[in-house]
UniProtKB/TrEMBL annotation:
<dbReference type="Pfam" id="PF06342">
    <property type="entry name" value="DUF1057"/>
</dbReference>
<protein>
    <recommendedName>
        <fullName>Hydrolase/acyltransferase</fullName>
    </recommendedName>
</protein>
<dbReference type="InterPro" id="IPR029058">
    <property type="entry name" value="AB_hydrolase_fold"/>
</dbReference>
<dbReference type="InterPro" id="IPR010463">
    <property type="entry name" value="DUF1057"/>
</dbReference>
Length: 421
């Protein structure tokens, strides 16, 4: 039982939402809240009137003491909560790192080859390469610009699609405070595709963009590569097939590394005819409103604009599955320290999808470290010394947002495992 005199963060979070959402308070919580508040300076907070279902009075919600507590920044603030990952990201404290931009010329060799092969969608691709504007943050550059030139390990982070570096708002500050530099960037979006008519978000394009970005920044070693969702396939390809970049360890967060997964099961959206039309600057404006209507009809779990769903889908099919299987086997054979984080209630990935990926990495799906809905460890499993798997009961597709404590600890352990390789 916590000591009286301050209000626990989980009660603050619930109380702030009470006046609008009218959330009922369970008897267990009511009893303990009453016992906690008795005799404390915060005893003025009115807890859970049974008839109204309110947790606190409107005056209490507006009190600046509570509002200040809500806005306080904590890198580990997203403990187990009923709020969705999108709400947590929306309310996350803004990253204070310098936003940087750079233009990368990339994929010239790929486009020359694909044009010669007659690959659809690349007839207008310049053989000199695409000029891609990249937005990124680099915590190490921020340090050096302030005179701190301490040598620290470097982590490279790939978002999913759609995704932004802000998706890692609960992870980047933690790594930075624990002596790890972080480089994270935004992938080109579908608007870039419509502007150029040739960037179709394939795994080869993304991997080549990363290699050329790192060369431009004069980086040839990555201590830890962290990827989320569809960012996993270029991450796997970078580790397995790019000898110019030395990647010491790999973290796959809710990875999509299969052409067939739960989120791609709707034939209304994901069919050859639709994708043929989408790979056209003329067909896309016609198909996007249709996508938007179908998404609402089938309640597709991907949030945001219809363009974002197209972006995500192109990213998830822009690779050869048998090639990814070989890449995973290569990573396994090289004994690259790896962690995989999966979630049982992921609406884009089924448990079968997750088991398939773990098996391809040579990991027994029954030997994961299993955490319950409260973030408590139920089973401490270990595949072996190479691959470690973490399974969250209710992590959703953004388990690193809902349970940053668990994921951040695992990332630090991974980068320590990679030392000396």
């Amino acid at each position: 039982m916590p000591q009286p005199g301050f209000l626990p963060p989980h009660l603050v979070r619930v109380a702030l939402l009470a006046s609008r959402q009218k959330l009922p308070l369970q008897r267990y919580t009511t009893h303990h809240a009453a016992a906690f508040l008795q005799g404390s300076p915060t005893a003025w907070v009115r807890v859970a009137l049974a008839k109204t279902g309110f947790l606190v009075s409107k005056a209490a919600v507006r009190d600046p003491r509570i509002r200040h507590r809500r806005c306080a920044h904590k890198a580990v603030a997203a403990a187990p909560t009923a709020r969705s990952a999108f709400q947590l990201l929306r309310d996350a404290p803004p990253l204070t790192y310098k936003r940087r931009t750079i233009e990368i010329t990339t994929c010239g060799d790929l486009y020359k080859k694909w044009r010669a092969e007659g690959r659809r969608g690349y007839d207008q691709a310049p053989e000199t390469g695409a000029r891609v504007p990249v937005v990124y943050i680099h915590t190490g550059l921020d340090r050096m610009e302030h005179g701190d030139r301490t040598v620290r390990p470097l982590t490279l982070m790939f978002t999913g699609a759609p995704g932004r570096y802000q998706d890692f708002s609960y992870n980047i500050p933690f790594l930075d405070k624990n002596g790890v530099d972080v480089l994270c960037f935004n992938w080109p979006g579908y608007d870039f595709t419509m502007a150029t008519g040739y960037w179709w978000h394939s795994c080869d394009e993304k991997t080549r963009l990363v290699v050329d970005l790192l060369k431009k920044l004069k980086i040839n070693k990555i201590d830890m590569l962290v990827s989320h969702s569809t960012g996993s396939t270029p991450a796997v390809q970078l580790v397995a097939e790019e000898p110019s970049i030395d990647v010491k360890s790999l973290a796959l967060l809710m990875p999509i590394a299969s052409r067939h997964f739960r989120g791609s099961e709707s034939p209304l959206i994901f069919n050859p005819g639709t994708m043929w039309a989408m790979r056209s600057r003329r067909g896309a404006p016609i198909m996007v409103p249709l996508f938007h209507a179908i998404m609402k009809l089938i309640r597709h779990p991907t949030k945001g604009r219809a363009y974002d769903v197209v972006f995500a889908y192109l990213s998830s099919i822009g690779y050869e599955e048998h090639r990814v299987e070989k890449q995973l086997a290569t990573i396994r054979d090289r004994k690259v320290p790896t962690i995989v984080v999966v979630s049982d209630n992921d609406r884009l990935l089924s448990q079968k999808d997750n088991r398939t990926l773990l098996q391809r990495l040579g990991c027994d799906p029954e030997k994961t470290c299993l955490y319950d809905k409260g973030g408590h460890l139920l089973r401490c499993g270990c595949c072996d010394q190479v691959v470690k798997a973490i399974e969250l009961k209710d992590g959703s597709h953004y388990g690193f947002v809902r349970y940053p404590d668990i994921c951040n600890k695992a990332l630090l352990e991974l980068i320590n495992r990679a030392k000396g390789r």
